[in-house]
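the two lines:
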Amino acid sequence: MHPVLGNWKGSLLYLGAWIPLGAMLGLLISTAGHLNFLDTVAVIVPVDIVLAFVCLSPWYVCRALPLRSTDAVRLIGQHLLAAMVVSAAVVFLARIVAEGLSNVRPGLDQRIGAAYPVLAAMIAMIYLLSIAMHYMVIEAQTSRRSELLAREAQLRALKAQVNPHFLFNSLNSISALTANDPLRAREMCVQLADFLRTSLRLGERAAIPFSEEMALTRMYLSVEQVRFGQKLQISVDVEPACGDCEVPALVIQPLVENAVKHGIALLAQGGEILMLGRIVDEGLRFVIENPYDPLAPSSRSGIGLANVRQRLEARYGKNARLDVEASSDVYRVTVIVPMRNA
Amino acid sequence: MRAVIADDEELARRVLREFLEKEPGMEIVTECANGFEAVKAVAEYKPDVLFLDVQMPKLDGFEVLELIDRQVAVIFVTAFDQYAMRAFDAAAVDYLLKPFGESRFRTALEKIKRRTGEIRPAELSTELKASVRLPGEYLERIVVKDGAKIHVIPAGKLDFAEAQDDYVALHSEGKTWLKQQTIASLESALHPKRFVRIHRGFLVNIERIARIEPNTKDTWIAVLSDGTRIPVSRGGYTRFQSLIGQ
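prediction for all of em together
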């Protein structure tokens, strides 16, 4: 569909723009042909209306001859030819109108003859201008579309990102265990592999059942529990009904990772991460609570949150929420997603 | 050689311990699980080398570096931080990337042995901290050592800083702490919209300024909310004016 005719507002605006253009054309032919006001109006109104519609036609031509991939000579040749044809056709129309009107307004067809060259030139110019504008519209649409695609790709990349810090620290733990606890080292290798495999698999999907996201989160935590030992305690209380609710893939696990990285890991004594899942009126409500050191520098913790917030908004708009509350020593993140069964 | 290990993860300390125990003439004097302990251990045991994790509770590795004897050789141990790695390379600081093997560990240790007795430049840790900060990120807290005690001053609680030769005197909540740092490097680390250098020797928390009074033709006096009077130079007055948008 044509971008202007696609909506009534655009169409009205477009037709409105033709009023001054028509007035200008009228002024030109009345000067060139020494026509009076009525004669001018009688000829220019039908010409103006036809031209307005003809100038929409480049939409199809321009799309058939894209700027980037069309040979320049061919491009210019085609459009010039079209402009000449349009100009000749519209001038011909003006002539028919003038001849038709010569019964009521004697001599009009004679006098207007002097205005044909300037009318033809103006019409060709207007038509060429409309071609240029159509190319601009097409260009703007393409760039907007590629921007959207780029954003989608970026979101996908963000989602699939496994935190390298976590990965290398886990490998270091495995390296430590190999010397005197090879069995636990092997166990941790398997846990890490399970987590990586699952997060890669889930990362390919847009939305997954909450139960799968929770399973991934538990895999992540089991690796971290080897690393942090007694420092990291976990408490999970999730209503069974939450399991079937659909959530965007990899939104919960990064939030729990934040709770470990910026909360528990920076406390000398460690602490407990509390997870609470409930079905409420708005949908699924999931709360992550962890103790934290209010004096610890908070740099870079916002990136993960912003990413999750962006993805929730992209999928659910205002129906999803991500709230962050920080009291003097407890950090609480609440996620609410509308109930949709996966 | 005497070594101290500072890492909050037991398993990470275990790797270092394992490698260090194999080294002849090497003794582990103590192990620490957070930044406070690390600073205290260095003061108490005066080791030759400190293995220092970057991300730790209480104080991070850079803050520990600020507070310890500049003669102790430091080997940073970190998992992955592209900013930190770039900073280490730039400052020629020794570091180990987790996980590391025994040969890489030996190389670092040999380098340290050759360097014994070297004294680190005073500004090294400030520079390191500055280079790992992202643009638009500023210091959220300042750490100072007072004898055996360590104080953490949140940036918002710093009233003003005063240059005193090689030191800055930090005034916060009615107390004064001395720290070896130039006022210029402190200024560049703090948020430029929250702290203003009203004089060559004074950096002031803008929220503490109650009023500015004219003094002589080209100087002013800033009166803080607690009544403290601080000189304002002509340049400082211009900076203050542009900051509050007048």
